[in-house]
Amino acid sequence: MFIGIDPGLQGGIAVINPLGQYCSSSRMPVLKVAGKTAIDVKALHAYLDYWSVVFNDTYIMIEDVHAMPKQGVVSMFTFGYGCGGINACAALIVEAIVLKVRPQEWKTHHGLIKKDKEAGLLVIENVYPEAAAECVTPRGKLLDGIVDAILIAGYAYDKFNR
Questions:
Q1: DSSP secondary structure letters along 141-156
Q2: What is the pTM of this model?
């Protein structure tokens, strides 16, 4: 299994099977704690564990993100805290190989450098057409966290099946 994760509260998770077929995707599970939104690490772990049990060999590829200039200290601390939870969940999956990938690496692979978020959806429509409906809300809003997660999972599949 090849699981791609776009970290963050608006991120996503996606699964590509060993045949290179789209299986599943989800928005990052979140919950409210004391009036603040946080990543639901229990739900995330359950999702990862479910898919890793289906096939013994699991690659979990997490986008390697960093602080950006002009972002607030509190928001970056919260984001980093969430990323730590995501990494911990992935590390707890038995026999999974957990890897980081820089955005430039997977975007270059899919021909998306200097392209907008909608270009990623076009790639998905061509490569994983059955996943395209998962990438937009019923009102047509792009769920870029899911788009990125699918593309990261697809990149992982391609990287380990050359």
A1: -B-HHHHHHHHHHHHH
A2: 0.93
* Whole-number Å distance between alpha carbons of 86 and 83: 5
Sketch out the chain's domains with CATH numbers. 2-160 (3.30.420.10)
Q: Return the axis-axis angle of helices 41-54 and 73-91, rounded to nearest 10°.
A: 30
**Residue range 26-55, pLDDT digits in tens:** 999 999 988 989 999 999 999 999 998 877
Quick one: CA torsion of 129, 132, 138, 141, rounded to 10 degrees? -150
Bridge partners (DSSP) of residue 36 are 33
Cβ 30 vs Cβ 37: under 8 Å? yes
Token pair in block for residue 31: 């919950």
Residue pair 43/85 in contact by the 8 Å Cβ criterion: no
Structure tokens at 83: 């990323």
| pLDDT tens by residue, 97-148 | 999 999 999 999 999 999 998 999 999 999 999 999 999 999 999 999 999 9
